[in-house]
Amino acid sequence: TPENLSALEEYAAATTVPLNRMALRILGDDDEDGLRDISTGYALTGIVRAIPFHRATGRDLLPQGATAESAASRARGLLGHQRPRSRYLRACRALSLVYLDRLKSCGYRP
Fold first, then answer.
1. Between vectors from CA 54 to CA 77 and to CA 100, what angle results, nearest 5°?
2. Of 15, 71, 84, 104, which sits 20 to 30 A from 98 (CA to CA)?
């Protein structure tokens, strides 16, 4: 379990940025504008959505004292100011924002 939200954000970036960079290359898209923030926000959103699964398997990726809402807020902050030119990154951002809205509507109880 990461020590704090910053460490969780670094974990999210380390696991998702390289994959999305590879996806961009496969798609022939070399525009990496916003890659790190969008990938990290996308990963944090996925981590929040997966809380029930992780807890059921005895794993918890949220740092001690962190909440689903605080992780979702960090994700929204990363995604909110990005306007990528890449269609792939725009799709990742849009999907993440839809998931974050749904999480908010259920009180951040995935």
1. 25
2. 15
Query: How large is the C-alpha radius of gyration of the chain?
Result: 14
- Could you tell me where the beta strands, DSSP code E, fall in the chain? none
Count of CB atoms within 10 A of residue 101's CB? 11
The pLDDT score that the predictor gives to residue 109 is 86
Q: How many CA atoms lie within 13 A of 102 on its CB side?
A: 11
CA–CA gap between residue 86 and residue 67 (Å, rounded): 31
Closest Cα partner for 16 from 55, 49, 50, 44? 44
Residue 86 burial class via C-beta count within 10 angstroms: exposed 0-12, middle 13-18, buried 19 and up: buried
Whose tokens are 């994959």? That residue is: 19
